[in-house]
Design brief:
The chain is of the alpha/beta class. Helix content is 43%, strand content 14%. It contains eight helices and seven strands; from the N terminus they run αααββαβαβαβαβαβ. The protein has helices spanning 6-16, 23-35, 38-54, 71-74, 89-98, 125-131, 147-160, 185-193, and strands at residues 56-57, 64-65, 79-86, 103-107, 138-141, 166-169, 196-197. The longest helix has 17 residues, at 38-54. The chain is elongated.
């Protein structure tokens, strides 16, 4: 027996497929949406489609942006010779929130994971190497301290070493397996300041 109407079921199913949303939250959200005034629901739907069609990767650092080049890369006041490599835009946001990092970023969109079959070609590594042809003095590897993050850090360091560009790794102290976005700003800054040369 179907507990709810077909449309409600479909809505619950879509919401439940989102990360971090279980069946119960999906039901709660579905009923909330159904009870909203029509114009609010239309606005929500519009915002979703507009975000999807207008947000793209920055052509330089591959973070999500509305423009060809994101505001960080486009800012002449930032230090364009230092590039911090992070796994995803959320990690970038975590460092950006500290307000203390002056350099640029490079977003890999993942990490190397032999277990999951994710190889170097599946993340934005080629693009990083391409950027290093420019005037770059230091690459700070700020991938997570998970097994995948460490594997990726190792791989990048081996890749960059021969170019003579300084390669550093943020200090441990970032909890093992911890996502950078969940770490407080003080810990992030300490990890950045205590970075070691690879
Ligand atoms: Zn950018």
């Amino acid at each position: 027996m179907e507990l709810y109407s077909g449309h409600i079921n479909k809505l619950i199913e879509e919401l439940a497929a989102l990360p971090g949303i279980g069946e119960k939250s999906a039901q709660r959200l579905a009923f909330y949406i159904i009870n909203l005034p029509s114009d609010r629901v239309e606005k929500l739907a519009r915002v979703l489609t507009e975000a999807k069609s207008n947000v793209r990767y920055c052509e330089s650092c591959f973070t999500l942006t509305d423009k060809e080049i994101c505001p960080i890369c486009a800012n002449p006041k930032r230090n364009h010779k230092t590039i911090m490599v992070v796994e995803n835009p959320r990690d970038l946001a975590a460092y950006e929130k500290t307000g203390k990092f002056e350099g640029l970023y490079h977003v890999l969109h993942g990490s190397i994971s032999p277990m999951l079959g994710i190889g170097p070609g599946d993340i934005k590594l080629k693009e990083l190497v391409k950027r290093l042809e420019g005037d770059v003095e230091e690459v700070i590897i700020a991938t997570n301290s998970s097994l995948e993050g460490e594997t990726t850090a190792m791989y990048i360091s081996k890749l960059i070493k021969p170019t003579g560009i300084k390669v550093t790794r943020i200090a441990s102290g970032v909890p093992v397996g911890g996502d950078l976005e969940n770490i407080d700003e003080v810990t992030l800054l300490r990890a950045l300041e205590g970075r070691i040369e690879l």
